[in-house]
From TrEMBL:
This is Sugar ABC transporter substrate-binding protein. InterPro entries: Peripla_BP_I (IPR028082), SBP_2_dom (IPR025997). PANTHER family: ABC TRANSPORTER SUGAR-BINDING PROTEIN, D-ALLOSE-BINDING PERIPLASMIC PROTEIN-RELATED. GO terms for molecular function: carbohydrate binding. Belongs to the bacterial solute-binding protein 2 family.
Amino acid sequence: MNARLSAGLLAVALLAAGCGGNSGGGGGQAGAAKVGLITKTETNPFFVKMKEGAEKAAKADGMELMTAAGKFDGDNATQITAIENMVAAGVKGILITPSDTKAIVPAIKKARDAGVVVIALDTPTEPQDATDALFATDNFKAGELIGQYAKAAMAGKPAKIATLDLAPGITVGKLRHDGFLKGFGIAEGDPQVVCSQDTRGDQAKGQTAMENCLQKAPDINVVYTINEPAALGAHTALKADGKDKSVLVVSVDGGCTGVKAVQAGQIAATSQQYPLKMAEEGVNAVSEYAKSGKKPSGYHDTGVTLITDKAVSGVDAKDTAFGLANCWG
């Protein structure tokens, strides 16, 4: 969620051949096993990198890759159509980042009942076991890392915290928020949190949210953001108020734009996640199923790394050189 959580992405229709036939390596070979990838959108850099990982793994495994995407973030209907088309095309497995984690479940059940392995990437369904497996970032840990960092960076100074969140009822947003609170060593409702606003992960909404928080509590000195677009929006508001040098901003995602913002000092630290790895491991799991009949199961953690150029004692981190070498977008 996420970068991938940004609103306002361009609408993209399904790709060619009914649900976006896109051969990866073995694509087009007679008898090649097929695997499908369905993302929330096609233009978001997070999903572009995910597709790159799927293409790389499909080529290595001699599989035919079919791809599809929603027309916008939240487009459940197009994702349902993509599932149906891929099942009809005879895929062995489908990798999906569900736009609507509840409404997509009946379509996933039909696919699984037809013998197709379904793996969620990045975003779990509700319930999580509606898919065979989940390959994703530990979003609670991602939040916890930046919470630990912020706590250490404050070095005992009293905190006045603003949380720029996602939106009510979205799992990724809640996990990151709760992880941050735990990392900072506080509970929900703690008086140190002086303002909370929803941003839907959007830069413009992040700016508005930060402006609102500054009006409510001008002495804010720590800002947690759901993702880097929200963080950059917050930075714009802080800079306009002359506070961009005195307020600590932390975030999650690890896209190239976000890592460059860390490098420039606009964001103090971010938790980097790895969409390419999610897709590679998902395709490999489907390949194994096609060969042996062994289905993947459970949660597979694809890793998270704290990125900062201002390391603090007691919190493991990598610098922005590492972040830029492993970023996306």
